[in-house]
Amino acid sequence: MLSKFRTAYKTPTGTTPYKLIYGKNCHLPFEIEHRAYWALKNCNPDLIAAGEKRMFQLHELDELRHQAYENSRLYKARTKVWHDRKLRMRKEFKQGNKVLLFHSKYKFKQPKLRSRWLGPYVVKHQYPSGYVELYGKDGKTFIVNGHRLKLYHEEDNDPREAVTPFFPKE
């Protein structure tokens, strides 16, 4: 049961925060009765051997911190790859394209039979940050986020094409 408590919280670095700071495991309060035995067991009256042991412990602590740093760097790299995979590709718009603007006023409950897309608007300029400047219907310009836009495909109404009726006239 004791080992369950000692390894309860570990960070992505592979160690506990207490061990990273102090270089030793945390001793919980219910171990206080064994504290005197623990202190006597670690006591070494030979000062030279104690100094060498302390230097070894310091080097071990530096190695532990270096390993935690490497684990943290690898964790951040994996998290970045996972996050970048989830991102949508940025939409590219050219000057003069016609686009539709998503109407985000009705986020939760929109009226029935009403389109969520406004427009068409004409693209004036696309910024590298993803924002797009549009011409409004009244000739004014405004800036919106590129994620709220989609290309508008106009219907090709060719006047030369004859419309064939469903029921031919007799």
From TrEMBL:
Write the protein's name.
Reverse transcriptase domain-containing protein
Which top-level group of life is the source organism from? Eukaryota
**InterPro entries per the record?**
Gypsy_RT_Integrase-like
